[in-house]
Amino acid sequence: MDSIFVEALGNSPTIRVLDFLIEGRGLDYSLTDIAENSNIGWTTLHRIWDSLLSAGFVIPTREIGRAKLFKLNVQNKSVKLIIKVHDSLVKETNEKYLNEQSEKAVVRS
Predict the structure, then answer these.
(1) What are phi and psi of 3, to 5 degrees?
(2) From first to last of its 109 residues, what are the pLDDT tens digits of the chain?
(3) Nearest to 88 by CA among 28, 9, 10, 14
(4) Is there a contact between 70 and 32 (Cβ–Cβ < 8 Å)?
(5) pTM for this structure?
(6) How far, in Å, CA of 30 to CA of 82, rounded?
(7) Rounded Cα gap, residues 67 and 86, in angstroms
(8) CATH: 1.10.3720.10, 3.30.1020.10, 1.10.10.10, 3.40.1000.10. Which one for 4-108?
(9) 44 burial class (0-12, 13-18, 19+ CB within 10 angstroms)?
(10) Structural domain boundaries in the chain
(11) Among candidate residues 80, 68, 16, 22, the one with its CA nearest the CA of residue 45
């Protein structure tokens, strides 16, 4: 099942990667972790990765053995706006769900 962020902005590899990284903001991940958790293929990730790096959306953090780790660049102005959209969509969806549940509880009473 797609997240509300993916549903709202489209099921593209870039949106899937951003969705995963926003959910885990503050943590760093290997490219393998990013591909697997974003549900996109390795080749697809490599096709979009350079644009995410050059836009400053992701930054390298450290190396563990041969694996380079990256995280969402929460200092990037565009990323800050994308996070606001993400969080707003999640908040709106949660509020709608809670209101529906509250209405159902009132009807049952």
Answers:
(1) -75, 165
(2) 789 999 999 999 999 999 999 999 999 999 999 999 999 999 999 999 999 999 999 999 999 999 999 999 999 999 999 999 999 999 998 888 788 777 777 777 6
(3) 9
(4) no
(5) 0.88
(6) 22
(7) 29
(8) 1.10.10.10
(9) middle
(10) 4-108
(11) 16
Q: Name, in order, each residue with C-beta under 8 angstroms of 42's C-beta and a sequence gap of 6 or more.
A: 31, 32, 35
Is the distance from CB of 58 to CB of 70 less than 8 angstroms? yes
Instruction: Tokens for 54, please give them.
Output: 């050059």
Say what the pLDDT of residue 109 is: 62
What is the token pair recorded at 69? Answer: 């780790």
**Rounded distance between C-alpha atoms, residue 17 and residue 33, angstroms:** 10
